[in-house]
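Possible regression after last week's pipeline update?

I re-ran a chain I had predicted before the update to compare outputs. Posting the input and the new output here so someone can diff against the archived version. Not blocking, just want to make sure nothing changed silently.
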Amino acid sequence: MIRRISGMMIVLGSLAFCSQALAHSAGRNAPSPDLPPIIPDNEYLSPADVHARYSGPALEVVLSKIEHQPFAGTSFPDPQGERHHFESQVRGQVSINGGPPQPFMANGPVDTIAYGRPPGGLGTFDTEMLSMTLTGGGGVMIRESPTLPSLGKSSITDIGGGLYHIDSFFDVFTELSLDGGASWIPNSEPNPYGPGGSTRVVLGIPEPASVALLALGLLGACGLVRRR
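New output (post-update):
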């Protein structure tokens, strides 16, 4: 009986550990609660296999494996909240009309805003991407929709030791131009996490290897209980 209780305690402890580890594998730890996060790996990634799909007459452009990284930013007060402006780089893969994926990269300014951020910067609050205009080679451009709101949410927690854990996501409505902005094609890819036609980008999606490692640890604990 004592062994069964001990085994159950091991399993429950392992479940709690894995749940806590998974909870903190999303997002990023930073030395300050500032936005955008002041850390080297502050990339926003897409959890979906297809980041965006732009379909026009006799044309289909698919973006995948997108990494969106702000690399220089400023923050300032706004009548509606706390506004953040930064230069950003997007890189990933692009496929045209079913062709093989090719490397893709674009750069440009992004503006976001945090609504009702608590004093001190900690807590959970709503956010919105107000604008984004990214330019790549050959007249390719991607912009945030000028008519649809790209909403999100952020959460900042003091985890001690001079570190803050930052969770953040946006559901971004984007449009693609292949002629330098003369015409635009909206994203048509369904968003399994938010409004259709938007793309969810998340700060610090857990790497598959990390999730697999946690699963193996839990299986190992269960195996230890069985042996006992």
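Follow-up from reviewer: compared with the archived run. The first strand starts at residue 28 and ends at 30. Marking as no regression found.
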